[in-house]
Amino acid sequence: MRVLVVEDSLVVRILLTHIIARDPRLELAGAVESGEAALAAIDTVRPDVISMDIRLPGIDGLETTRRIMASRPTPIVVIADSVEDSSLKISMNALRAGALSVVEKPVATTNDGYEAVAGQICTQLRIMAAVPVIRRRPIGAEWAARQSGGPPEPPVALEPVAAAPSVLAIAASTGGPPALAKVIGGLAADFSLPILLVQHMGAAFMDGFASWLDGVVPLPVGIARDGEAMRPGRVYVAPGDRHLELGTGGVLRVHDAAPVGGQRPAATVLFASLARQAGPQGIGVLLTGMGEDGAQGLLEMRRAGAATVAEHESSAVVYGMPAAAVRLSAAARVLPLDHVAPHLLRLAQRRPS
Length: 353
Fold this sequence. Notes:
This protein is about 35% helix and about 20% strand. The protein has helices at about 10-20, 35-45, 60-70, 85-95, 115-130, 140-150, 175-185, 205-215, 265-275, 295-305, 320-325, 335-350; strands at about 1-5, 25-30, 50-55, 75-80, 100-105, 165-170, 195-200, 220-225, 235, 245, 250-255, 280-285, 305-310, 335.
């Protein structure tokens, strides 16, 4: 798999080329120091995947990502600093513009965490190179296209319920940040349910992800804390490398039990806790992502009488986790992303019949 490295720091560029050269499944297609150089090289180099720095001279990584996704869509993995809020926000916006994932920059080879970071970078590059990506319209054109589209599909009649919903859980992985921004951003500022959220992402980025999401949706967003009582209309994000569960009495539980299905936090852990604690008062949503995390937990929720939703293949960046839920018949509704928020608003307004 041919990798184009876009990185302005000579030291980091050398580290990345060294990391890529060690992996027999990866081939260095080129290494450039700016967004302009990347845009000039991409048609000649024709990479399978791009390693993208965010802080670049001239055109930054966000704008470079936008231009690549508008002209020659290519899987992009953002390589970012994990400590600067401004870098994190740019990284999250790059994901919204079409990049697939974000990982930490490598540090000196003598650093204790070097091998772990190097392994994660190679894994992400290999996996994301196989993800089909689509052309993205320039900013503004997407909004215009939505406005000029036809009327939304008529809503499907909802089944009678014995209890009003009390909590919503959402999970996502690859492609999740922009999908979550769209879904939670489509809910009213007075949305009445607490929202528990699992997003697969490196632990170093979770605080920045929560901060970014808080700035782009109408509801307050924060990292969940163990023992915290849920409040209506707030979004609680699972911390990095910690499971999030709903405990008794609406209290959140955050813990470091073993990964489930290779994931911590795991969507299945969250969904299963809602099946136990909320039963038919729960709502579960499984969005884009690789693997099968969340499918079994969503099935437990459906068996407990909860409303369950999986993202439709037509809008999912990676149709892995939702597809697993569909195979298990865990999702009562399978909806394209644009239809998820309106459906959740209707579900939240249900009253016992």
